[in-house]
Amino acid sequence: MTDEISLKEKRYNRLITVISIAIPLVVAVLFRYKIPNAKPLSFLPPIYAGINGLTSILLILAFIAIKNGRQLIHRRLMTTNIVLSALFLIMYVAYHMTSETTVFGGEGPIKFVYYFILMTHIVLSISVIPLVLITYSKVYLDDFESHRQWAKYTFPIWLYVAVTGVLVYVMISPYYQY
């Protein structure tokens, strides 16, 4: 039985590694590509910011659910968060493939605050991909102890990424060209 789990875990780990490398690379490539003559999808930023906000709320609800022993609700909420994150990513890339990059127009200390939040958001959004996938995979391996250990790190990072996604949007939204 242990060999079967080990083989299954190795497969998951390979897939997680491929996905964790592929997503940032594909996003970086697509981020630089502009679809010729495409109408800007300027309606998307508030939608994907809303998705980040909803993800934040659902992450907290999932945390509360598991603390109260509600495993099924926790699992459904976490699966929903993964789906929302995928939708966010699709919309984010679509927006940037059809629109020019918006430059933050704030001056003084707020500019440094904005760029600090933005940079930590970007770095942690890349690092949260394997963390989420590893944490999620532990459930399918019936390794709930490892799942709990990984979740101690994954949850606060994912929550930070979701919350700062909203903050970045709120801070840059006055500078969008519609």
TrEMBL record:
<feature type="transmembrane region" description="Helical">
    <location>
        <begin position="47"/>
        <end position="66"/>
    </location>
</feature>
<keyword id="KW-1133">Transmembrane helix</keyword>
<dbReference type="Pfam" id="PF04238">
    <property type="entry name" value="DUF420"/>
</dbReference>
<keyword id="KW-0812">Transmembrane</keyword>
<feature type="transmembrane region" description="Helical">
    <location>
        <begin position="12"/>
        <end position="35"/>
    </location>
</feature>
<feature type="transmembrane region" description="Helical">
    <location>
        <begin position="78"/>
        <end position="97"/>
    </location>
</feature>
<keyword id="KW-0472">Membrane</keyword>
<feature type="transmembrane region" description="Helical">
    <location>
        <begin position="157"/>
        <end position="176"/>
    </location>
</feature>
<feature type="transmembrane region" description="Helical">
    <location>
        <begin position="112"/>
        <end position="136"/>
    </location>
</feature>
<protein>
    <recommendedName>
        <fullName>DUF420 domain-containing protein</fullName>
    </recommendedName>
</protein>
<dbReference type="InterPro" id="IPR007352">
    <property type="entry name" value="DUF420"/>
</dbReference>
